[in-house]
Amino acid sequence: xxxxxxxxxxxxxxxxxxxxxxxxxxxxxxxxxxxxxxxxxxxxxxxxxxxxxxxxxxxxxxxxxxxxxxxxxxxxxxxxxxxxxxxxxxxxxxxxxxxxxxxxxxxxxxxxxxxxxxxxxxxxxxxxxxxxxxxxxxxxxxxxxxxxxxxxxxxxxxxxxxxxxxxxxxxxxxxxxxxxxxxxxxxxxxxxxxxxxxxxxxxxxxxxxxxxxxxxxxxxxxxxxxxxxxxxxxxxxxxxxxxxxxxxxxxxxxxxxxxxxxxxxxxxxxxxxxxxxxxxxxxxxxxxxxxxxxxxxxxxxxxxxxxxxxxxxxxxxxxxxxxxxxxxxxxxxxxxxxxxxxxx
Length: 344
What we know:
single chain; mainly alpha; globular; CYRIA/CYRIB_Rac1-bd; CYRI; small GTPase binding; lipoprotein; membrane
């Protein structure tokens, strides 16, 4: 134990400062070179026995998340076939070609949509553990690093998915064409068997999902808000403090010597995405949002950290703060923050 060989008073102080001091240092920004500051190990944290059950459940979903991102990145769309079909409405072969190009793509879009629901339940599983009243948010994040890391991976996936979706107009074009064709087939009593795996009700839900500029982020924001309203006995601060603490930890890791502990440069971008993700969730869940003076998130500091990165790697993240937060344009947001987020 760290207490052996020391006089009792000194040992108590030493133990206390080792265990408790870590985080207090980070959150009061008292970063020095000799303290064991709180470093959230996004690269290697492994689950302890008490975390294993939740970790394994969420891990299944995160493994699928990688496949989803690869599929989305490879998504090319049926733009050319659809264009031909619209130009030659009477030519049967051209119509069939477009239809057979679109059907498998819509099956993919259905998979993405269904995955958003799995992501939602994983997020709620993690929030259950990370916001329980048994410890402070800081203790939860420090002691359950493997689950905190999974929470970070969900946010990272979400922002990455939405960045890819935003820059791929084919997704909505393909889906609109699919819906138009299905309703035309219905009117003409033609069998639309090939497309029946997406019935009308599912098509409506998918349509709402893809209509959002950032569908996965909306899913997570709604899920977090729902988590808060479904748990009236849990103080809302448990959830908002968990989010703001995570934002602080990411920010501190990015702007201090901690950054040199990352094994990979990728982790910097990962950390930035997670920071932005928790800010957006906080802004949706906290009644006053992330931008007010009383917010627990140092918004100016977070925006500054983003702006110090190469513009190409953070433009999407700055846009996420500009366009997917809820309170940025409130009167309570300082002019300075609004100016910092003005597009150049």
